[in-house]
Design brief:
The mean pLDDT is 82. This protein is flat. It is mostly helical. It has two helices and no strands. The chain has a domain at 25-49. The relative contact order is 0.05.
Length: 69
Amino acid sequence: MSNSAIPLDEQAVEIMMERILARWLADPKRLSDIRESIFMAQLAQHGGSFDWLKDEPDIYSDNDIEESL
C-alpha cells in the first residue's frame, strides 16, 4: 500500500461534511448534549469559579507537548 496522499475535491469534501453534520445534528439527544455542554461552558466562563487561574503563572508551553506514538 502506498503512502501517497489521495487528492480530494474540496467541494466534494464540503458537501460530505455538511451531510455528516446534518445527520449528526438531526439526533435530538446529540442536540441536547450540545446545548448542555454550551451551558456548562458558559457557566464555567462567567460563574467566576476559575477566575483565580488568571493570576497563576503559565507553567507549560507548546514546547512541552509530546507526540504520542
